């Protein structure tokens, strides 16, 4: 005898109403979540670059003390020469004559400057060295700021002053991350001169 075959009376699946409710909830979650995620990613990118600058400055200072020579940190638009392009590449090099210029020759000689570190900057960031009169930062053989003055590296990404970040070089050669030091907090970080960092 053959077994009796029964056809399913109901197919499993979603009704149109269930599908519409699911899509509506998904759209609400995306509307709320995506801007927050975008801000989170932008903030992390900014913090990562500030930390990269702090690491570069600390490495330059340590090398200056270890080598007993001036070490210069500069911005480079082409990744090879110091030309103030802080938003492109940062270079740290042993500056044998202390002139703030990378001196190299082909073939290399014992008096050539040696690049110890190079850092690429994301194109979404605008980085500047403040005050604007400075074009390089130098550490002397004792690890102090060579010109005896402080400086601030300002980082902006187009979201305005409240999202600006900074790395501060003190005259002592120590490096710090900029914070809001105003007595009345305005959520804008301050540079080495205690002035609010302003984005272009």
From TrEMBL:
Membrane-spanning parts: 12-37
Domain of life, per lineage: Bacteria
Keyword Transmembrane helix listed: yes
Localization (cell): Cell inner membrane
Chief location category: membrane
SUPFAM superfamilies in the cross-refs: Pili subunits (SSF54523)
InterPro entries linked to this entry: N_methyl_site, Pilin-like, T2SS_GspH
Pfam families reported for this sequence: GspH, N_methyl
Record has Phosphoprotein as a keyword: no
PROSITE patterns assigned: PROKAR_NTER_METHYL
Membrane-topology annotation of the record: Single-pass membrane protein
General secretion pathway GspH domain sequence ranges: 49-161
Keyword terms: Cell inner membrane, Cell membrane, Membrane, Methylation, Transmembrane, Transmembrane helix
Entry similarity comment: Belongs to the GSP H family.
Protein name (record): Type II secretion system protein H
Organism: Hydrogenophaga atypica
């Amino acid at each position: 005898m053959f077994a009796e075959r029964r056809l399913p009376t109901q197919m499993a699946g979603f009704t149109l109403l269930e599908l519409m409710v699911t899509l509506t909830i998904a759209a609400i979650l995306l509307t709320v979540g995506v801007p927050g995620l975008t801000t989170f990613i932008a903030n992390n990118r900014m913090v990562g670059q500030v930390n990269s600058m702090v690491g570069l400055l600390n490495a330059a200072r340590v090398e200056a003390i270890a080598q007993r020579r001036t070490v210069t940190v500069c911005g480079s638009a082409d990744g090879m020469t110091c030309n103030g392009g802080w938003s492109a590449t940062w270079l740290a090099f042993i500056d044998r004559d202390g002139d703030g210029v990378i001196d190299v020759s082909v073939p290399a000689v014992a008096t050539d400057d040696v690049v110890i570190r190079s850092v690429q900057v994301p194109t979404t960031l605008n980085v500047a060295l403040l005050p604007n009169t400075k074009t390089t930062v130098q550490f002397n053989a004792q690890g102090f700021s060579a010109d005896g003055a402080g400086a601030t590296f300002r980082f902006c990404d187009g979201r305005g002053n409240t999202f600006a970040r900074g790395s501060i070089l003190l005259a002592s050669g120590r490096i710090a991350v900029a914070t809001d030091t105003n007595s009345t907090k305005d959520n804008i970080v301050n540079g080495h001169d205690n002035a609010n960092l302003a984005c272009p």
